[in-house]
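Batch job 17 of 40 flagged for manual review because the log was empty.
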Amino acid sequence: MSLALVCSVGCWRGSPAQGQTPVAEKQKVILDTDIGDDIDDAFALALAVASPNLDVIGVTTAWGDTDLRARLAERFLKAAGHSNIPVAAGPKTNASSTFSQARWAQSEPARTWPDATAFTLDAIRRNPGQITLIAIAPFSNVGALIDRDAATFRKLKRVVLMGGSIHRRYGDLGYFPDRGPEPEYNVVMDVTSSRKLFASGVPIDMMPLDSTQLKFDEVMRNTVFSQSTPTTDALLSLYEEWRASTGNPTPTLFDAMAVAAAIDPGLCPTTPMHIEIDDKGFTRPASGEPNANVCLASDSDRFFHFYIPAILNGASQ
């Protein structure tokens, strides 16, 4: 790993003695996820726990049946060898989405989960200015955090999110002229909370549809699944449930880009923008002081050359 990459995600702890290898400062992160519907959340979680540059201090579940999502997250963490990472469940909501990986989740025993709002606020208070919240779900948990204690929420280091659509809509991979934006799921499911986030004053790195439509094709899937580690076996099981539920063989790893960009910002270079959210859930650039750094384009080949070795190296340790 190059010095430039290490320093893009942390600074050196002091000055190492001659002949010693310097140690990179890990980023403290909390992953807020609606794992269990689309499959990209599982691939995002796998990258977060595989990265030596991240210290995942918690996983919080958002939207819909957050208890069942917590069961899925806990089972995955155990399978991946990270049972020490706490899981907390956010407020339940009404959700029309299909929980495609429910059967796998239900194999984890039900229990009472810590409250995600209290868990996150307590973590921020203990680590002011140090925690990155990686938000890859509808922003219901974010709204709950701001409603309960906006001052503490502002002590986050930053929020890295997957959400929004600036120029490209779903299914627009850049091969044809832009068809324009459309409301993106994580935003439109909770417009009120999305607006609270963008008005919060916390630094935001935004990965919209423009830069996150990353197709995990058959060759790449075979490369990962053929390794048969506990992590890749868990991903394969979840993938098979998702594929059977949706009839779609090719995942789009939207959410994994948010985790990857938190690790290496060079994977998704950003532009400062002022984003406003209208009543229909469109994320529209507007005049005014920038409230987000927005990644408008990414290199899919470069992303997967980062993602796949990271998953396999982390899964083998």
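Reviewer: the log was empty due to a logging misconfiguration, but the result itself is present. DSSP finds 13 helices and nine strands in the chain. Unflagging and moving on to job 18.
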